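G., the chain you wanted modeled:
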Amino acid sequence: MIKKLTVVAVLVTVLAIPAAGAQDLLQKALGETIYVPAYSRIFSYPNRSDLLAATLAVHNVDQKTPITLTRVDYHGENGELLRKILENPVELAPLQSKTVLIPINDTTGGVGSNFLVAWKASAPALSPIAEAIMTSGSGGPGPSFTSRGRVVSRQMPSE
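Predicted structure as tokens:
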């Protein structure tokens, strides 16, 4: 009986987590900073690595509210700023996207490179999807994967 109750408790907990997470995705903000992991190389053996191209994609998922990208920075695995991507703020209309490519021959970021993306809006907006897409770019079979960003700071509307 205790085994059955434990299984039921675990299932209820696991099934409740996605619902809570989905609700949080609909929370609107006036701005955020998003950390997006990226990889310019990955190791396949102790002394062998594969080079990767990294494409940052930022999608404004809000169907009514434009957002403005105020900062897109590329950092190396040691945390140092390698490149400021935006010279000027870029407005994204509802459902519009912006992409940035770090080419396969740019290995300055190392294994643990990352992007910091900052955005703001004049009215509360849904958090954009910010993700990095890494590909081997070789034309043949090779590693390809995505890495979703994580909000590290958020500006909420005053209530």
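Confidence is low (pLDDT under 50) at residues 3-23.

Shout if anything looks off.
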